[in-house]
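Input record, target 12 of the design panel.
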């Protein structure tokens, strides 16, 4: 199933992102997590794409297994990092042969130890080039991309970042998923500005339940997401109380999602970090209210 056909404000879907484990035990745990989430009827799940060759292979393997063994629609992430055009073409063929129908086309982060992104010789510098390449090669994928309500950390201004997104969409994206955010005002403002310049594809909000204080600090530094002052103060008070922090994180994400759904989002994408309990609690609460 093409994900673009599942994104509908009148019947929004919930989706979940995972990263490919590095071991067989990790893979078994991931499939168990998926089993726990299956009763929530996810619209799709996505699997990220690591910089290492073995991790890349696991992305293809896991996406194929999810689609084959669970019946849940799966989307593979694909990045430009370390890849020539020919290598990307080969990866796309492998995904197509595995009957994968959905790909999230990304530039990717610079490899560990590098501060700026540099493409390999014969590779791509921008996600828009990867999207255009996939379309020109005539692969029949439904293509998603990333967007940044608060602006990408490498971009000088939010307007410049929005123009980069317009180029990606014009190259052939079917939908986009946002970077995580904790203040819905950023999302609503972003959607309004995107529509104003002719970006008309579905914009799916990305939500990360807060379950670990140090992890939150690390992620917000990496992606530039803003934690609202009131939430930051509440988190500071419970940062040494794991259960209370998870309860606060789940409550905040649930309220976020309720407002997003009430204002007509086409779906909500959860960054699960390969753990299901917090996401299960949120989605169960949301389904109980519908």
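The sequence produced for target 12 reads:
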């Amino acid at each position: 199933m093409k994900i673009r056909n599942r994104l509908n404000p009148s019947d929004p879907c919930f989706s979940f992102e995972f990263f490919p484990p590095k071991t067989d035990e990790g893979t078994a745990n991931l499939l168990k997590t998926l089993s726990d989430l299956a009763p929530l009827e996810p619209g799709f799940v996505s699997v990220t794409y690591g910089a290492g060759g073995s991790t890349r292979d696991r992305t293809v393997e896991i996406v194929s297994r999810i689609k084959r063994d669970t019946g849940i629609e799966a989307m593979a992430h694909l990045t430009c990092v370390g890849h020539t055009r020919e290598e990307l073409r080969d990866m796309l063929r492998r995904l197509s042969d595995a009957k994968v129908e959905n790909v999230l086309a990304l530039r990717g982060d610079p490899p560990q130890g590098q501060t700026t992104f540099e493409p390999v010789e014969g590779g791509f510098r921008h996600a828009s080039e990867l999207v255009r390449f996939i379309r020109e090669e005539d692969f029949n994928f439904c293509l998603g991309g990333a967007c940044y309500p608060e602006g990408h950390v490498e971009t000088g201004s939010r307007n410049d970042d929005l123009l980069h997104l317009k180029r990606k969409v014009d190259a052939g994206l079917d939908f986009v998923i946002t970077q995580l955010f904790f203040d819905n005002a950023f999302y609503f403002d972003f959607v309004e500005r995107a529509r104003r310049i002719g970006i008309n594809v579905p914009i799916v909000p990305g939500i990360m339940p807060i379950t670990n204080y140090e992890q939150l600090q690390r992620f917000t530094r990496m992606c530039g997401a803003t934690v609202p002052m009131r939430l930051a103060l509440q988190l500071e008070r419970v940062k040494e109380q794991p259960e209370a922090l998870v309860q606060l994180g789940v409550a905040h994400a649930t309220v976020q999602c309720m407002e997003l759904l009430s204002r007509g989002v086409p779906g909500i994408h959860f960054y699960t970090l390969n753990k299901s309990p917090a996401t299960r609690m949120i989605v169960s609460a949301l389904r109980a209210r519908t």
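The first strand starts at residue 13 and ends at 18.
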